[in-house]
Predict the 3D structure of the following.
Amino acid sequence: MTKNYKILAKYIKDMSSETPDAETYMYVKDNISRYQLGIDISSKAIKSRLIEINTSIKFHDKKENVKKSIFEFIYTSVAQVDENLKDKKVLEKIILVDVQKEIFPDIEKTLINLLHNSGYPAIKIEKKIDFEELYKKNFN
């Protein structure tokens, strides 16, 4: 299969690590294994054949604890799609699957660096995300 897009740029648009105080830090350090990864993908046309794709990452405790940290960032990709591409379903799959699979190693590295630099050096991302499976589950 021929690749019908090209990623022209990748960058961190916005990044945040929030731990309100030392007591929260100590609590989170002991309970960070409960934290979950959330991903939201949005896109918009920049101009003809250029698409800005924003992959929002949030690593947080979904429980309503008073003591918690929030780690989040938006990883932006600019993709150029083939001029012959007209099918919206194919474009949707490029944005939600193909580009995500290509950029996810960078996203994973960014998240690990954010966590390490925020004082949580023992964190590793064990579970891999299957964007193809998520796409099939949500759009078929």
Notes: The chain has one domain: 5-139. The two ends are 21 Å apart (CA to CA).
